[in-house]
Amino acid sequence: MPRLTRMWTHLERQRGGTGTRGGAGEKEIETDRRMIRNQISVLKKRLEKIEKQNEIQRKNRSQVVRAALVGYTNVGKSTIMRLLSKSNVKAEDKLFATVDATVRKVVINTIPFLLSDTVGFIRKLPHHLIESFKSTLAEVREADILLHVVDISHNSFEDQLNVVRDTLRNLNSAEKPTLYIFNKVDLLNEDNEHLKNYAVDKMNEKDDVVFISAAKKMNMTELRKKIFEMVKVRHFQIFPNYVNNSFY
Q: 124: left (phi > 0), else alpha (psi -120 to 50), else beta?
């Protein structure tokens, strides 16, 4: 709406007849502002309806282990989602390729769980975008397990990791069981191979870590094993009498 002021300056000298309020430019601005306000109102109501639908869907999933992929934007979450779920999830090398949460059923060693691919976090997320991300952030809050994906080849990977951690703290989700997935190891070379050891040193003793390349499908078996061990713990809390003799 603030941009409208200069859009109609070419009409500011056109005045109406006696008793009319303002010129043609002012009338056009008021008309446009009213249309924009109406459109904002319509979109807000649609968002509220979508959020209610998503809330019902999340309640229906309460008896299934839920894992959420989290991480800075453009670190490879959607590629990992596609490999684990064997589904055609959109994965692009750009900011906010995933906006809404995508949920897929995954089965590892006969134990099923729901995996959600969430929006990539960024530093100082613009406040006017928060409304659009409510659905995906709710998936993070209600997840049993977090899979924190980090681009180990990025020069500022530590800063990105801390941005995501701060966001998780704001969502009261920082204490959830978390697997740190350091992705894109195929892009490391002799000059920055030390980053792997540096990354491990930055983790706490309780943190679980795995190094992979989703693009090259490197170390995916180890990733599945670690996810399975985390899912298994939560699965037996929900279904204590579940029997499975084919564990890794």
A: left
Q: Residues 131, 148, 151, 170: is their CA dihedral positive or negative?
A: positive
DSSP E strand boundaries for the chain: 66-71, 102-108, 111-117, 145-151, 178-183, 208-211
Q: Which tens digit of pLDDT belongs to each residue from 134-191?
A: 666 778 888 999 999 999 999 899 999 998 898 888 888 889 999 999 999 999 988 8
Q: Which of 79, 177, 176 is nearest to 120 (CA)?
A: 79
For residue range 32-73, what is the model confidence (pLDDT) as tens digits? Answer: 888 888 888 888 888 777 767 666 665 655 578 999 999 988
DSSP 203: S
Domain boundary pick from 44, 60, 76: 60
Does 25 share its domain with 94? no
In a domain, 248, yes or no: no
Residues 135 and 75 occupy one common structural domain = yes
